[in-house]
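Q: Could you fold this chain for me?
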Amino acid sequence: MSDLAVYDMDRTLTRHATYTPFLLHCALRRAPWRLLLLPVVAASMLAYVAKIIDRGRLKEINHRLLLGRWIHPKDLKPLVDSFADATIAGNIRPGALKAVARDKAQGRRLVLATASYRLYADAIAERLGFDDVIGTGSVIGLDERVRSRILGENAYGEAKLRMIAEWVEKSGLTGKHGHVRFYSDHASDQPAFEWADEPVAVNPHARLARLAKARGWAVEDWG
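A: Sure. Below is the predicted structure, expressed as structure tokens.
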């Protein structure tokens, strides 16, 4: 029986969000002219704030604007690798590295569960020594090119917990895994917090801090 340590990524493992920086990283290195589309990116974000579009659609629009409708894996890989290297070098919380080392020393199976796209989250997780990744998928065409469309659900909120449950089942761990420790910085992960045996609020924002206090969840400052 394997105990699990399940981590959110953005602002939990990392100091800052990664999705928009990833797209900007790609645009700068592959097609700098796409930066001229930033006003359209800003307009899409306003549409999200106004609840005209949801988070998933926002991601698809920004992906298409800054990375393109499709990209071949051979062209995507160097962009992903350079972004993952930069993330590890400058955007990982010091306390996150200690927590990962602690959980690994305890023999836990390390799982990254993130709303970010797996197309780059996989590379970050590999560099940090994670065993498995649950995240937002991308549609892959018959030509092997990565599309700007999301495959399935955006791994956010209740959808993240559904995807964790699907991973548990597909991994043959249903009724077999041991103690589950779950880390996140945001109250949107409340479903996963409630599911875990040991919820840990990491550098929580105000809403999560209140929720953690009410539920008696652990709170950690990872710097």
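A (continued): The mean pLDDT is 96.
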